Amino acid sequence: MQEDILINWSPQETRVAIVENGAVQELHVERTLERGLVGNVYLGKVARVLPGMQSAFVDIGLERAAFLHVADVWHRQPDGEPPGAVRAAQALVPIEKQIFEGQSLTVQVIKDPIGTKGARLSTQISIAGRLLVFLPQDDHVGVSQKITPNQRDELRARLQTLTQAEGGGFILRTNGEDASDAELSEDIAYLRKAWARIKNAATRLPPLSLLHQDLSLLQRVLRDLSGDATQSIKVDSREQFDILQAFGREFMPSSTEKLQHYKGERPIFDLYGVDEEIAKALGRRVELKSGGYLIVDQTEALTTVDVNTGGFVGARNFDDTIFKTNLEAAQAIARQLRLRNLGGIIIADFIDMVREDHRDAVLGEFRKQLARDRVKTTAAGFSQLGLVEMTRKRTRESLAHMLCEPCAVCQGRGIVKTARSVAYDIFREILREARQFNPREFRVVASPKVIELFLDEESQHLAGLSEFIGKSVSLQSEAAMGQEQYDIILM
C-alpha cells in the first residue's frame, strides 16, 4: 500500500503524519523544549574527582556539572562477555586512578537532569539505529532478549557475518527481527558513519562541545519511517527541507529523492484533514461508516476497545449485521492503535458471533491489518469470553499522554460528583465543624451550581441545619471553583 509522509514544522514543534490512501494512519509529535539529552555525546572536561564516592563531576557545557560513577567508566570486556557484564577487574581500579581533574573525556548522557541533580554520564558510547545499536568500543555481537531464544543463534550468526569485516559491537533490536540483510547493512553503514563523525569532531572541537545528538523527529522520518511504500515526503519549511536533503544525501540516499518542498497556500495538514483526525484520536468514541462505533478506554494497565452496532441495523439478518460491523471494526481498531500509538496489553471486545467462520474471518482481517503496523504486535485468538487479547510494543508516549494532561477538576477519573452529592458533603462537614468550634457564622464558598442548589431545592434542608447547630450559614458563589471544590470559612 502506497503512503505519503507530511511534515509540518515550526520552531517550537514538529508534527509528522503518515497518510495511506487519503487516510491518516500515524501521527508523530516532537516539541523542541521537551527533547531530552539522553543519547547525546559530549567532549566533557573532568571538573572534580570524588574518591570517597567513587565518582566524578564532568562539565559538558550544561547549567550543572554531570555525574560519572566508576561503574559507568568503560573497560574492554573479555572475549565473549557482553557489554554490561559483571566487571570484577574494574571494581579493583579506583576512579581516581582512571581519570583526573582537567582531563577531556568523550561521554554520553544516559539519564536526563532532574531537579537539582545533573545528568548522568557513561564513557561507553552506544549509537542507536533503526534496527541495531552500535557499540564502537566493543566487539560483542548480541541479540535483544525479547526475541525468542530459538531465533537468537541464527540472527546472531547473520549479524556476525555482516559486521565482522570492520569490527565493533552490535546489538540487534527487537524491530530488526524480520529485517533483510540489505536493511541491516544499510543500518550498519549509517551507524559507522555516525561514529566516524563523532571521532572526527572530538579531535577538532574544544572541550564542552556537543559531538553527537540523537536524531530529531525530522531526521528519523528518513531513517525510520520512510520505506519502499513511501511515495513522497512533503516538508512545509524550506530551511528544514535543505537540512533534510543534506542529511539524506550523506546517510539515506534512497529516501532523499522522495523529498519535496511543499509550497501550497493552505497549511499542509489541511490537505488531508490531519488536525481533525488528531481531535478525533483524543476522544473515546470512534464512528464507523456503517453506523456502528468503537469506545476506546486507555488505563494504566491496559487499553480496552468495545465494538457496538449503534445505528446500524443491516439489510439481511442479525448475524450478517454483527459480522459486517465486526469486520469494519477490525480495520478501524488496527488504525486507531497506530494513530493513537497505544501500547502494552490491548483487549478488543467484538460483538458476539455465533458462527465459527465469521469469527475466523474477523480474526483474519484483524491480523491482516495489524501486519501493516511497523510496531511489533501479537494477537491471540478469541478467548472463552469472546475477547481478542493482543500486545503492541511500547515505542513512545501515546498521543493522548503527549498532548493532554489529567483534568484539574476530575483528576483524570472522567467523572465528578453531582452538585447534590457535594451539597450533602458540605452539610456533613458543617456538622463536624460545629461540634469542634464555636464561630459566629459558617460561610460556604462553592461552585455556582452547588450554591444554586442550596438556594433552591436544598434551601429547606439548609435552614434546618442552621437551626439545629444554632448558627447562621451564609453562601458565596465562586465561578473559578470546580464542582467538587468548596471551602467552609469560620467567621
Number of domains: 4
Name of the CATH class of the largest domain: Mainly Beta
Q: What is the number of beta strands?
A: 24
Name of the CATH homologous superfamily of the largest domain: Nucleic acid-binding proteins
**What structural class do the secondary elements suggest?**
alpha+beta
Helix content: 25-40%
CATH A-level architecture of the largest domain: Beta Barrel
**CATH fold description of the largest domain:** OB fold (Dihydrolipoamide Acetyltransferase, E2P)
Number of DSSP helical runs? 13
Q: What is Rg?
A: 30 Å
Instruction: For the record, give the distance between the C-alpha atoms at the N and C termini, rounded to a whole number.
Output: 71 Å
Percentage of β-strand residues? 25-35%
Mean pLDDT: 88
Query: What is the approximate shape?
Result: globular
Low-confidence stretches: 84-90
Structural topology:
Blueprint: E1 3-10, E2 13-20, E3 23-31, E4 41-50, E5 55-59, E6 66-69, H1 88-91, E7 104-111, E8 120-122, E9 127-128, E10 132-135, E11 141-143, H2 149-163, E12 169-172, H3 181-204, E13 209-212, H4 217-225, E14 230-235, H5 238-251, H6 253-256, E15 259-261, H7 274-281, E16 285-287, E17 293-298, E18 302-308, H8 318-340, E19 344-349, H9 356-370, E20 377-382, E21 388-392, H10 399-403, H11 419-436, E22 441-446, H12 448-455, H13 459-469, E23 472-477, E24 486-490
Helix pairs in contact: 2-3, 4-5, 8-9, 11-12
